[in-house]
Amino acid sequence: MPRTLKLAAAQMGPVHLTSTRTETMDRLLTLLRQASTLGAQLVLFPETALTTFFPRHLITSPDELSNYFDSASTLLTSPNTAPLFNLAKELNIDISIGFAEWDESAAAGSVAGANVKGYNTSVYYSARKGEIVAKYRKVHLPGTVEPFSNPDAVNQLEKRYFAPGNLGFQAFRAPDLVKSVLKKGGHGVEAKEDVKGKGDPILGMMICNDRRWVEGWRCYGLQGVELVLCGYNTAGFAPDLWGTRKPMTPEEAETDAVFHHKLCMQGNSYMNSCFSVSAAKAGMEDGKYDLIGGSCITSPEGHVLAEAKTKGDEIVFAEIDLEDCRQGMEKTFDFGRHRRIEQYGLITTQTGVVEPELLG
Ligand code: CDT
Fold first, then answer.
1. Which domain of life is it from (predicted)?
2. Could you say which of 87, 94, 165, 215 would form a disulfide bridge with 139 (CB–CB 3.0 to 4.6 Å)?
3. Alpha-carbon distance 45 to 230, whole Å?
4. How far, in Å, is the centroid of ligand 1 from the Cα of 285?
5. pLDDT digits (tens, 9 = 90+) for 306-358
6. CA separation for the pair 160, 18 (Å, rounded)
7. What is the CA(207)–ligand 1 centre distance, in A?
């Protein structure tokens, strides 16, 4: 049975330090309406979509910093965020969006240090339910706590403002997003094997740097994920962050950064037999900080089905059939038959690299 889904990435162009919340919200609403005219049922927005990518700045004033954060518990009611969820409900479109989550319990600060204000988070809103049905907190936080000594460096102070995500890689089902699916206890559900690939779509969220780490993808793969959603803000040129043996022009560096982004989305989608969708915040923020575009939708065979053509506000759209995940899941990457967990111990017992002894 086909399980088709009309899917969109809402890529955003730059959001500046001077952009107001209202201006940015208006752009998000416009993108959602554009996706709706294409018939999209699910729209992904970028990481920290509501503001500029503020972790590149050293912000010491607590009041100023609090302007970039929102509480998860008031997303559906706060004037800063509610208009997007209200429109999603009206248009009957599920959305996933990234934002800086204010730590209401103050637990994040006690884990990671006094400066930490919360988590780099994304949520999944089900329009049919009218509620947020899943939340993910970014696990892999790149960059540094303190700015680089080089005054011209592009900083990424995520470790300063955010605690590492503590919700794991929890896959979830998107309620009633796709027609004609099996439900628990429903007719035709006899054994566990009978339901594989026939229920409500299985989704997983990750945020930006997470896409570079195979561990998260495999955690989702082991839950039968069919679609991974990933919003991002990726610098086009940041030699202090990623290091360079060979000097590169900003143009060469950006080409490489887009290549690595797509490599992660394509390779990991293939190796976990799932679709993926990625949405960038792109372009030149504050006239100075370049972010890559390259938002795309990729298939379980690793092909790019649709991709952004600009570095501005743009909808990337594709109609997919989740049934296409079955080929990989049942053959090349049938985990149950082919994985050898007794050989993978290092993955969860060791963090850094330990080289073999030097030869004599
Ligand atoms: N936002 C985010 O996580 N950006 C990082 C930059 C890393 S620099 C190597 C990313 O992985 O795209």
1. Eukaryota
2. 165
3. 9
4. 15
5. 999 999 999 999 999 999 999 999 999 999 999 999 999 999 999 999 999 99
6. 22
7. 9
CA angle at 214 for the pair 212 and 216, rounded to the nearest 5° = 95
DSSP structure string for 36-100? HHTT-SEEE--TTTTS--GGGS----HHHHHTTEE-GGGTTTSTTTHHHHHHHHHHT-EEEEEEE
- The answer to whether 292 and 284 are in contact (CB under 8 A) is no
pLDDT tens-digit series, residues 246-260? 889 999 999 999 999
pLDDT tens-digit map of 79-127: 999 999 999 999 999 999 999 999 988 888 888 887 898 999 999 999 9
48 CB near ligand 1 (under 6 Å): no
Question: Residue 304: phi, psi to the nearest 5?
Answer: -80, 120
Active-site amino acid positions = 47, 138, 208
Closest residue CA from atom 12 of ligand 1: 234
Q: Which structure tokens are listed for 360?
A: 């004599």
Q: Which contiguous run of DSSP H or E holds residue 251?
A: helix 250-271
pLDDT given for residue 180 in this prediction: 86
Residue 283, classed as helix, strand or coil, is strand
Q: Which tokens hold the place of 317?
A: 């759209």
